[in-house]
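Report of the visiting student (M.T.), summer placement. My assignment was to run the structure pipeline on a short list of targets and document each run. The first record concerns Terminase small subunit.
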Amino acid sequence: MELTKKKQKFIEGIRQGMNQKEAAIYAECPEKSAKQQGYRLMQDKQVRFYLERDIQPKNINIPEIINNSTDPLELLSQFMNDELVDMYSRLEIAIFLLPYFHSKHA
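After the run finished, the structure tokens were exported:
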């Protein structure tokens, strides 16, 4: 899941203890509309995903997840079925998991 620089900086600001308006200003939103931008960013599914799960904003690296998990198939299945994960990432995970659940028949 790729985040824009603005979303990454907003998440960083929230984690530093800033309120929504301050974090929006930190993310280089115009000061006039920072309060509205902060509210809008807090409603964003990707931002909520990273804040609720305390995941650092970066692209999900499937091999890294597999190496750092005790049951990678279960973990990836949870990501695939999570509505807060963007659809493109869910599709990538589903494609990755396909051979584990459905074998090729000649």
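Residues 87-101 form the longest helix (15 residues). The helical segments are 5-15, 20-26, 34-43, 45-53, 62-67, 72-81, 87-101. I thank the supervising group for their guidance throughout the placement.
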